[in-house]
């Protein structure tokens, strides 16, 4: 057993296939397969379930992975400390939720490029459910996600709640509504919302279900500007975080609806794997810039 065998095994688990692991390690597929076989021979048991797609570790493989990951992280930290003066380098994969708006990811990217020029940044804007799945499958190093109040992230990840944000009901400026309405009156309206998989949509649907009220989706569409344009045309009501609404060029055609008995909120969590190692400063950079972004947008 040696480090290069462990590295090949961990890479296959992280990528879900020998093909992707070989590309990431700049090796042939046969070389990666041979290294994993060497490790399995040394331990005397199979470490991968080769019948699943993506390839998953066996029970023994998962235990091996949990031991190997911090070992390899420590080795990489040692290399970084000696070769780059401790500066983070290599790939850093992180994600941000669509609920914060597509442009929210710009601030962390700019900070990372300035503070850590040796990092190769891979940034993604996706639904929080997708980001959680990618963290679990180890195809992301860190992510900011939106989770409804009262729900906690998976215990397998390091989690920090960095904020709580309300959700606002949005209507066309020309739509006739009383200054303040109750939730039951919302059941008479149709909605322009994100497709299934969006946490804010799920929160709204659950609220209707719990009250035994009908819920009507007029249009499912990805992208807040598209949704806002449809809301402005009177297609239905929308749902978004205030900072997304206030930063929209369509905001003058829209208005916020005051609902007396419905104040949905989502917690904003920063999540990363337990073996983040040399990438910890990059994670802190993402954390700090997102907090600054939320604070700045909250003052607008």
Automatic annotation (TrEMBL):
Keyword field contains Transit peptide: no
Domain HTH lysR-type: 1-58
PROSITE patterns hit by this protein: HTH_LYSR
UniProtKB keywords: DNA-binding, Transcription, Transcription regulation
Pfam assignment, any one: LysR_substrate
Family: Belongs to the LysR transcriptional regulatory family.
Protein name: Transcriptional regulator, LysR family
Organism: Granulicella mallensis (strain ATCC BAA-1857 / DSM 23137 / MP5ACTX8)
